[in-house]
Amino acid sequence: MLSRARVSSVMLGSVALRLLSSSSRRVSGACALRCSSSSTQVAAPSTDAGETELMTLHEALNSAMDVAMATDSTACVFGEDVAFGGVFRCTMGLRDKYGAERVFNTPLCEQGIAALGVGLASNGTTAIVEMQFADYIFPAFDQLVNEAAKYRYRSGGQFNCGRLTVRSPYGAVGHGGLYHSQSPEAYFAHTPGLKVVVASGPYDAKGLLLAAIRDPNPVIYFEPKRFYRSQKEEVPVGNYEVPLGKANVIRQGSDVTVVGWGAQMQVLGEACERAESEMGISCELIDLRTIVPWDADTVAESVSRTGRLVVSHEAPRTGGFAAEITATIQERCFLNLEAPIQRVCGYDTPFPLVFERLYMPNSLKVLDAIQDSRHF
To answer: Is 58 a catalytic residue?
Structure first.
């Protein structure tokens, strides 16, 4: 007997398919039980994405969704307020360009939004879902963790919802308090069957989002909301992807390896610069980009050379993804370590409002960890 959750997913998906009049495609059964290669037919990414433009993070994300919808006729975008551009204006202009059948608002019901995404994706539609804030993703947890992540496994590879991507702004913004500031990536990293991506800048944001949309597995895609308009980079206007599961070495160094993702990369960059200019400590800075799967090989290679590792994220320390990185690198690089691995994270408290500056793992805290590791 089908579970109530799965019935709701399939029913919502079927209703949406009729409303959207989108052409459904036969879902391939030749899939691995957890991760597989895709049978989805979309325009191949160009090896030359053409000219570039100076884009903010939210403009780069908009460009990615524009490319995805232009190259895949089944792709649709939906969520709370996305039809007029969304709270952060990431979907501006998409409804005008692609119509109300492919870009549409949903009720304020995250569980229903996720169920609709699961149902659509399992019926052959490329579903690009927006959760308005990462803090509001928790009502959808059952649909994402118990349905989306397990759909392929529970059917023995007959069905999947790999064409589901869930976008959500996460992290501190300076005044968000406990319900608009959380970083929930570790919750989803603990779930086999999901991929978890966290962008840190406009160029990566577009390429990673296109890769996530086209990946044959459901992807949770977190966006650092405080960078939506504060960061600008030259971004190709055309079609390109940044591969999932491959870290980016931002800065090469010889003394300490420093690892992070998302919004924390700006903090870590400042700490690494000060470590070199003020203390003569050379830091190798690595942006993971993808939490699941994460690029353990790149981190291990770096730590094997430096002998030291500092990992940092905004989320609370206990059970944060830094703990997984720490355990893995300790296993792989034990004989190369010159100092205990350091974690610089948020505190194990609800995210504060007036005490946000004290809570945040800022560059001074990271700098102290770098210094302690170097001089252990």
So the answer is: no
